Amino acid sequence: MSIYDTLNPEQKRAVLHNRGPLLILAGAGSGKTRVLTHRIAYLIDEAGVNPWNILAITFTNKAAREMRERVDNIVGYGSENIWVSTFHSTCVRILRRHIDRLGYDTNFTIYDSDDQKTLIREVCKYLDVDTKKFKERALMAAISHAKDEMMSPEQFERENQVDYGKRTIAKVYKEYQSRLKKNNALDFDDLINKTVELLRTNEDVLHYYQNRFKYIMVDEYQDTNTAQFELISTLASTVNEEGEMEHNLCVVGDDDQSIYKFRGANIYNILNFEKQYPDTKIIKLEQNYRSTKNILAAANEVIAHNTERKSKALWTEQEEGDPIYWQIFDTDRDEAESIAVDIANAVKNDDKMYSDFAVLYRTNAQSRILEERLVNLGVPYKIVGGVNFYQRKEIKDLLCYLKTIDNGNDDISVKRIINVPKRGIGLTSVDKVQVHAIDKGISFYQALTEAEYIPTLGRAASKISPFVSMIEILKGKLHNPDYSLLDLFDEIIEATGYVDELREDGTIESQTRIENIQELRNKIASYLDSTDEPSLSNFLEEVSLVADIDTVTDDTNVVILMTIHSAKGLEFPYVYMCGMEDGIFPSYMTITSDDPTEIEEERRLCYVGITRAKKKLSLSAAKMRMQNGEMKFNKPSRFINEIPRFLLKQTGAISAPRFPREDSAFVNSFGGSSNYGTIPSKMAASPYKKPAPLNKSANTMFDKPKTGSSLLNSIPNLQKGLGAAKSFQPNYKVGDTVKHIKFGTGMITKMQQSGNDYEVTVDFEGSGQRKLRASVARLKKL
DNA sequence: CTCAAGAGCCTTTTT
DNA sequence: GGCTCTTGAG
Predict the structure, then answer these.
(1) How far in angstroms lies nucleotide B7's C1' from the CA of residue A132?
(2) Model pTM greater than 0.85?
(3) What is the pLDDT of residue A743?
(4) Exposed end of chain A (fewer CB within 10 Å): N or C?
(5) Low-confidence residues of chain A, pLDDT below 70?
(6) Residue A454 DSSP label
(7) Helical spans, DSSP H, in A407-460
(8) In the complex, which nucleotide's C1' lies nearest to the CA atom of residue A590?
(9) How many CA atoms lie less than 13 Å away from A532 in the CB half-sphere?
(10) Strand-by-strand arrangement of the A737-740 sheet
């Protein structure tokens, strides 16, 4: 019996297909990752494909990591030579080698959305564009959209000459792009676009990668945008031994789970795949292995309300299971309380794990009240999404020091830290230096080094030179091979007095920041542990491509809270979908939109949410909800009505929704005859009471700093804040054989506790002895 | 140049 | 409600 005998007939057909384009339409929970990994194994073990010729692309690092793990487990030989990576890291890897062909330096910086916004703001100031009329957000979105469609600034300008607004956008786009280049920086979209540009303009590079990636697999294909499609289709044209053109491209996706149109995903990539590649073989995976019959029926019914979709019907051999639970609460607080109590009881009485539960919601803002109730009941949890670790002020500041040292052309980073901590270099001085930089056509940092020759600066120049010499000294030390990244990090903290200042501050907030900095230091340490040839640039790059979902691991026993978007690809035995109200989900924006396809995207999102549940799905809504500081009255989500009655079990008090009278002073602010209502928060009467303040001494982690956002999200806080029991507890001990994703198998020779973590020494078969941090290394006991 | 207080915006989702 | 940006006083 071979590993392929465990597959169902469709899965098997997909796995055994080894040449030519293949489209796998894989419904939720139909085992697509299994198919992909088995197909890789088949290609290597049976079809004689060199592992080196295989590229598997995903969207998130988490998905890539999981696939890598599973591939490693079933591919006998050479699995480390398979490229399994995300779109963005694949591109970075290619660009680091060849981007000099496009006039960039190979140590380019990657800008996150914060940096982008800063740059846009600068551009607007420079071009005299009123940011009241043209919001940075809107400009960013417009530019990003253009890039998704691979439209260059020049092309955008040509095609948008009539409309004043669009002309302005074109101007901003052009300047933005030229400044990115000046700063030797790429934004997320550029990573894809520049790679395509590189391949199109450099035949030798193109041939190299076409030859290398003879077999390409793409996961979540329905989420690809035009640029990503171009990338893939450009790569996936190879010539075989017989001299014929081949497209060994295998894409896996589900049009019903396309939920990223707002981000530029082009659903026609999947809908028209067979037109792009006429000899495409299409395989549908419709058997679901995840959910009960009832859950699946609910999902099928909801999604059937969409018009534009490829026909598909999921089925399962599983039992009917529980009904779908549905409950309407008076307030959002009641809703949150009920969910928290439910979970706490289930864990206490029914022997469930916290990690069996997930609470899903439409918007990140909904997490706050849930979090509050969970804390209250002592239920451990982790929030995924919101503001990620690397965007916190203190982390960004220190990263910008590193970036400045790494790439002096990155003006944005330099400007961010020039006066952090305070050095008496204010905005006026910065502007003067900037003017000088533009005049001379040099970078901002370069201009700083010439500060004493900038006459307008006057005495301020004397404040600048110590900063420059500090950076120069640190830069110089980097050349010493014995000087590690950790030394550099410590020296930055020492030289800037960053932590000292926080310490003097003495507030709980500063304390948390110090802990975050410590955590960043740990991350550097574990980076050094796990990388063969560590470098500053490489570290910064890894950091910039981390998404919050990537930090979710299934080895921590906590309840997971996240948006439905983040939940795609995951599954949980027990799922709560809360805030099932018109105006929340589907969102107000899509309800009022002229574009009817928007509500369909919301419905797909609902479908994604429902299909995350394996055993039990609980839906809930609140009649009254605090939103943007206002009390809102929403009616139950239309999606609830789309689930057949007999599948639902409504629990709790069934009272008619209470809405404000139309003629009252509280008439809704949306206008029209909708059922929405809103009243200012001050007028909102009980039962909505302000929750009691959290106990500070017991929950220092739950105090938020004024700037930066929720500190509740990060793993370190989780480990620290939830008591001793929540520190990292490995399930292995000295003498055990473990597997590391990169170093392979080895034996644990030593384990030493350090704080909430363990330092584990492993003797690896291939790479010898290494010290690893248990919480990061994620060793698997064999 | 820095800090504090007030205005205004926000909320759809994120690699 | 909470975050960010602007404004005006020291």
Answers:
(1) 14
(2) no
(3) 65
(4) N
(5) 1, 554, 653-730, 740-744, 754-757, 766-768, 771-780
(6) -
(7) 411-417, 427-440, 444-449
(8) B12
(9) 5
(10) A768-773, A757-764, A744-754, A737-740, A780-781
